[in-house]
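Researcher: Next sequence.
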Amino acid sequence: MDVLNAMNQTMLRSDTAADGHAGKADALALRLRAVHRAVSDLKRGVPVMLLSGDESLVVVPAETVGAAGLAEFAELLGGGAMLLLAPVRAAAVLRRPVEPNQAAIAVHVRPRLFHPDVLRSLADPTAEDILPDEPLLTATPPESAPAALALMKLARLLPAALVAPARADAAQRAETRHILAVPAADVLDYPAAAATNLVRVAEAAVPLEGAPDARVVAFRAPDMGIEHLAILVGRPENTTAPLARVHSECFTGDLLGSLRCDCGSQLRGAIARMAEDGAGVLLYLAQEGRGIGLVNKLRAYVMQDRGLDTLDANRALGWGADERNFLIAATMLHQLGIGGIRLLTNNPDKVAAMAACGVDAVREAHAFAPNGVNDTYLATKAKRFGHLLG
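Model: Next structure:
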């Protein structure tokens, strides 16, 4: 661990020596960048190391790891391997109930199960079922288990990670193979840090059908990751409590006109309302599928076609009912100079979330009639998510 400790000490000295706002911003950007790089490696099935106190954990995603990644994982591990799963998925894999309130359930994984297809089957309820016939045993999750699953979620991968304690010389081996080490605390802090440090990077006039006086403003986090957009109709920054819509992107509904949801209707309806009102702001957040990403949303559709509703489909994949971060929206409004809004939404939780982030939000109803395909979807929103559709 000498190399990793030296790296940590260097970062601490850098933080301590940082002079003023610019230095602190640079230090923050470095921490965010390390997490962003770890996410990129995991998407490619490359192991990373999580550091927490004296614990060093080797981590690979069950969804994307291949033979090469598993070989690197085996070279670094210094103890028994475990598969970390969210409780609902763990219950399905173990074929028995588990404690639902745990952040992660750890399942023993013998080396003979180190096969990409087997690991994907353990992680993905929509994949071919090749679960082992033998009973699987649980283990005590490591301290960094929540951070390991948080990394999977940041990568928009299924929240399932193969992990093991690192061997004594793992730091040297990791350095040779350019395997990244990242503090678990930085992973857990990443969503809030990225949201509160968004940078306004571009603005252009974009006349829209029905709203010719429109602009699009782009925001980006210091790690240069995903961009979020604000669509301004008229001059909402000069308006007291303008109409606003906090809209999570929906490729299928917004772009393709999917009938499975009401997202496209809400998007276009909000812009029309703002044009009629004379001003408004629509925050278009890169949080597809309530924050689980497009690929996982498609998997959730498969689970819905098998009989689950929206909420249970997300949980079956290992995700929460709603994984969105509304602090992003609050930061964008603050940078736009908008403190109070009339929020076009049917979701009381969204109003409460904005208020918790310091935005004075009053709800404006924004409901659209069922279309014959999304009737069950809308009924689930009302019954299980508490949306006010009446």
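Model: The first helix runs from residue 2 to 17. The domain at 2-188 is CATH 3.90.870.10 (DHBP synthase).
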